[in-house]
């Protein structure tokens, strides 16, 4: 059984193709693993019946020589994706037992290609958080622990359930979303690979919105190749999402192993922060050396507006969120708390339904959009955003193919350790990742080493718009050099 | 610069004359099969919540997609208002909570509307016109409807209208009295209906007006305005303005000041009432909708739509005056409604000699037909007399086959019994007698039988009218009146 869950998607595809095992066997192995790992709290809803039904159906297809590129592969789905007839909550009390009568475009493309749904994965409430501690279902536990310690660590967030489940071999891959680092940071915290595609590469239709101009779906997987395989199914133009881009989806897997010789890799000096831990610095240097050894050329680049990215992000994202979350009002679906007037109904429903972090961001967002503050905050932040974008454009205009940075400023931290007194402490987790969302660029986080306590660390590669292929080629170089990391099973 | 603003009727107060300054925001429902950002039907009168898509109900993860037909209609309307068409416009979110607004925001256009400045020429009494400037036109979503009469303890929501496309047409404060205001709405409605971009049905709520009213001493600085919301009748607009202007004048003359506020008109009491003050006004927190890209199209797209615009009332009126010699008044009456203009055009098409009979046809459409339709409460669409029948009647008069008087009888027969006017004239012997011999015989008989009247007429020629009447009576009205006159004059020697 263990063998079936420790395979990569690429290996499992081969095994299914040569009939070494069936999708049902593969699915059952993962369902058993999920059941045994409930202490991780990665899944908020297990769908074993549906999983087995899908597996049987795809087995029948495989037997006839049919089935798509993901035929029979069991996946976990972040609870932000609407899944038809399956409870979808964004891990917020306010959605209650909401069961959508529709399927998100991204997941429907996964099922179209033959994937099997194991269940819904935990995340920070409405994807707002960097530790998966804001979920109404409680925090997700990172399968990684510090050496010789039993301290419970966070898997990062908001896609903490996705990262934890993939790292702990509960699913072969998972969907995730990234608004400021929500795919890449948890990937780095769990030694998984996380891809945040170019804005517009994946449809947002049917994904519970956090910040519409920043949200983007992407995969978390155990290898760069697996993430490329998943990306091909998740990506694509969708007429139902005006911001999705009509560009053909390439065979991302074909980019794996492609030579990176002569590619210019930018090392942005502004990412070298004061007081950055030495091991992060070392990891970064090492990663650069691996790429150089593979034939890439390293160049120092400047992204001068980097320091404004986080503050600007925490204006734009809450502004959009405050508006996007207005629909959760207790009138049509989800939680409704009684009230003697409509105003009271709104107030009690939203007070009861939203957690602290969501309420904080709704209030920040409402404030920065208010008359008299709009120009000073929102408009200014949008100008900063334009400058950040231009920083990258200038850099790419000089022939840089991709930019290498650390994925996070630290390894995973303990549950309850950060952000209790000062939310900014938590926000700083996204310091290396938010720029990418602000500029709408693709980014990948690849496991690259461990810190002194044995916790995984990741590197981030940032690419040109719609050049995810370059990231897969370069990411695989890092992966080959760094090796793969699997947490010892303790749960 | 509003050089063309016509002074309006001043209102007398205790301290002298006051001028009313009016600007309007008209919400016109776009004629389209589906909503502004969803595929749901816009049909009126469906079962509650039967025309609601996932987008209209603001389900989690739903995204708006612009309906191109609504864009086309907005551009066509802009062209019809002689307005600037903006090749790039932006959709914004107007944020507020209300149960009839599922998203918690209305998608509208705030800083960059699809249509900019334009103008409308408005017909006033006595053939005068005024020009009202258009500030802008933008596209936005309509809200749903609350039903308060379904349960003793709860209100229900009907989302059928939620997301239906509206054009908000904002005028400049160029209107100066209730009469002009009514004329403006009438004209705008007419233009929209000619264009087919809004059905203009005010009863169904397809056209609603928010009216901004302030008063000032003529030529003085603008006063504080009050907005009267959601007017759905042209007459109520007039009444509301009259009331509101007097209310404001009284307050000011009593030493008070006007509070900027939103008011509602109560048609039963004929008065406006405060709805909410400026302090209670929402902060809508407008910002560009991140779910939608800026709306962009090319000049050639606009040009193509422009080339295919129908003839609008002003152009039609000019044509009627120039090529058919109609009076400006008659032309205005005919073009005011698209249906009546169409009817008249069909009558014209049925005339053998348009140049000769066009004007006569206009008279008949306006006086005989419209008069009768009004009297009997018919619309032009269910007129018992068709355009073809009317054309035949007018043709018979024009060619001299029947007299105007007989034509009225013929019209009556066609109205009540129907039938081909030409055949009716034949069958019922209604042809005008132009045979001089026959008329002369009648004239001679009457002169011979009435020597006293002859004497009187010779003394006082105006009395010859009595003879005309007798001749017409005896001929059953069919004698050619001109011929009768000529003969009488000769025989009586007057």
UniProtKB/TrEMBL annotation, chain A:
<keyword id="KW-0648">Protein biosynthesis</keyword>
<dbReference type="InterPro" id="IPR004412">
    <property type="entry name" value="GatA"/>
</dbReference>
<dbReference type="InterPro" id="IPR000120">
    <property type="entry name" value="Amidase"/>
</dbReference>
<dbReference type="Pfam" id="PF01425">
    <property type="entry name" value="Amidase"/>
</dbReference>
<feature type="active site" description="Charge relay system">
    <location>
        <position position="78"/>
    </location>
</feature>
<keyword id="KW-0547">Nucleotide-binding</keyword>
<comment type="subunit">
    <text>Heterotrimer of A, B and C subunits.</text>
</comment>
<dbReference type="InterPro" id="IPR023631">
    <property type="entry name" value="Amidase_dom"/>
</dbReference>
<feature type="active site" description="Acyl-ester intermediate">
    <location>
        <position position="182"/>
    </location>
</feature>
<dbReference type="GO" id="GO:0016740">
    <property type="term" value="F:transferase activity"/>
</dbReference>
<dbReference type="GO" id="GO:0005524">
    <property type="term" value="F:ATP binding"/>
</dbReference>
<feature type="active site" description="Charge relay system">
    <location>
        <position position="158"/>
    </location>
</feature>
<comment type="function">
    <text>Allows the formation of correctly charged Gln-tRNA(Gln) through the transamidation of misacylated Glu-tRNA(Gln) in organisms which lack glutaminyl-tRNA synthetase. The reaction takes place in the presence of glutamine and ATP through an activated gamma-phospho-Glu-tRNA(Gln).</text>
</comment>
<keyword id="KW-0808">Transferase</keyword>
<dbReference type="GO" id="GO:0030956">
    <property type="term" value="C:glutamyl-tRNA(Gln) amidotransferase complex"/>
</dbReference>
<dbReference type="InterPro" id="IPR020556">
    <property type="entry name" value="Amidase_CS"/>
</dbReference>
<comment type="similarity">
    <text>Belongs to the amidase family. GatA subfamily.</text>
</comment>
<protein>
    <recommendedName>
        <fullName>Glutamyl-tRNA(Gln) amidotransferase subunit A</fullName>
        <ecNumber>6.3.5.7</ecNumber>
    </recommendedName>
</protein>
<dbReference type="GO" id="GO:0050567">
    <property type="term" value="F:glutaminyl-tRNA synthase (glutamine-hydrolyzing) activity"/>
</dbReference>
<feature type="domain" description="Amidase">
    <location>
        <begin position="25"/>
        <end position="471"/>
    </location>
</feature>
<dbReference type="GO" id="GO:0006412">
    <property type="term" value="P:translation"/>
</dbReference>
<keyword id="KW-0067">ATP-binding</keyword>
TrEMBL record, chain B:
<keyword id="KW-0436">Ligase</keyword>
<keyword id="KW-0648">Protein biosynthesis</keyword>
<dbReference type="InterPro" id="IPR004413">
    <property type="entry name" value="GatB"/>
</dbReference>
<dbReference type="InterPro" id="IPR018027">
    <property type="entry name" value="Asn/Gln_amidotransferase"/>
</dbReference>
<dbReference type="GO" id="GO:0050566">
    <property type="term" value="F:asparaginyl-tRNA synthase (glutamine-hydrolyzing) activity"/>
</dbReference>
<comment type="similarity">
    <text>Belongs to the GatB/GatE family. GatB subfamily.</text>
</comment>
<dbReference type="GO" id="GO:0016740">
    <property type="term" value="F:transferase activity"/>
</dbReference>
<comment type="subunit">
    <text>Heterotrimer of A, B and C subunits.</text>
</comment>
<dbReference type="Pfam" id="PF02934">
    <property type="entry name" value="GatB_N"/>
</dbReference>
<keyword id="KW-0808">Transferase</keyword>
<dbReference type="InterPro" id="IPR014746">
    <property type="entry name" value="Gln_synth/guanido_kin_cat_dom"/>
</dbReference>
<dbReference type="InterPro" id="IPR023168">
    <property type="entry name" value="GatB_Yqey_C_2"/>
</dbReference>
<protein>
    <recommendedName>
        <fullName>Aspartyl/glutamyl-tRNA(Asn/Gln) amidotransferase subunit B</fullName>
        <ecNumber>6.3.5.-</ecNumber>
    </recommendedName>
</protein>
<dbReference type="GO" id="GO:0050567">
    <property type="term" value="F:glutaminyl-tRNA synthase (glutamine-hydrolyzing) activity"/>
</dbReference>
<dbReference type="GO" id="GO:0005524">
    <property type="term" value="F:ATP binding"/>
</dbReference>
<keyword id="KW-0547">Nucleotide-binding</keyword>
<comment type="function">
    <text>Allows the formation of correctly charged Asn-tRNA(Asn) or Gln-tRNA(Gln) through the transamidation of misacylated Asp-tRNA(Asn) or Glu-tRNA(Gln) in organisms which lack either or both of asparaginyl-tRNA or glutaminyl-tRNA synthetases. The reaction takes place in the presence of glutamine and ATP through an activated phospho-Asp-tRNA(Asn) or phospho-Glu-tRNA(Gln).</text>
</comment>
<dbReference type="GO" id="GO:0006412">
    <property type="term" value="P:translation"/>
</dbReference>
<keyword id="KW-0067">ATP-binding</keyword>
<dbReference type="InterPro" id="IPR042114">
    <property type="entry name" value="GatB_C_1"/>
</dbReference>
<dbReference type="GO" id="GO:0070681">
    <property type="term" value="P:glutaminyl-tRNAGln biosynthesis via transamidation"/>
</dbReference>
<dbReference type="InterPro" id="IPR006075">
    <property type="entry name" value="Asn/Gln-tRNA_Trfase_suB/E_cat"/>
</dbReference>
